[in-house]
Specification:
171 residues; seven-stranded antiparallel sheet; 12 strands; 54% strand
């Protein structure tokens, strides 16, 4: 898939222990770094936007994201790419599209109005500085970088995540 880098802050609690583990569910798989007292102020990853072949009559999608929070936490700051298959009505192959987006839960995702194709190489990061969240997504193949800064009411500095959602639905 790509590479993941996790950065801990200087304010990590004494006696904190952080561990990276691989996690799988029926809807997603990926890596989660966290642990008792662990705090992170930056996570970065790179990956290729998944390719897809449309099959059947139902729309499908695959989402790759990196973020801070999530897992069992109610808060999540993430930057993502999404590949989607929209089937054609007449048995034609359908339409494959790729989109970049960001999200700070509990608010809905916000799409970045940028061109992206399956197979593009992307580099993404989420950085916390107090309550300031900076989400950066660069499409190396297309040659653009988007930076989004927001100051939500609260943030969750642990765990960090790198996830592929809906892996069986796109190839």
């Amino acid at each position: 898939l790509g590479a993941l880098i996790v950065f801990g802050s200087g304010s990590t609690a004494t006696g904190a222990s952080a561990a990276v583990s691989y996690a799988v569910s029926t809807r997603w798989s990926g890596y989660v770094a966290g642990g008792r007292g662990a705090r992170f102020d930056r996570v970065a990853a790179s990956w290729r936007v998944p390719s897809a072949t449309c099959r059947g009559t139902q729309p499908t999608r695959a989402v790759v994201w990196v973020g801070i929070g999530g897992a069992a936490e109610p808060r999540l700051e993430q930057v993502s790419t999404q590949t989607e298959c929209i089937p054609a009505a007449s048995g034609d192959p359908g339409i494959v599209s790729a989109s970049p987006w960001w999200e700070i839960l509990p608010l809905p995702q916000q799409y970045l109005l940028r061109d992206m194709l399956p197979g593009d190489l992307v580099r993404a990061s989420v950085t916390l500085a107090g309550r300031l969240v900076t989400m950066r997504l660069a499409d190396v193949t297309q040659g653009w970088t988007a930076i989004v800064r927001r100051r939500p009411r609260s943030v969750t500095p642990s765990p960090t995540d790198w996830i592929l959602e809906h892996p069986p639905t796109c190839s």
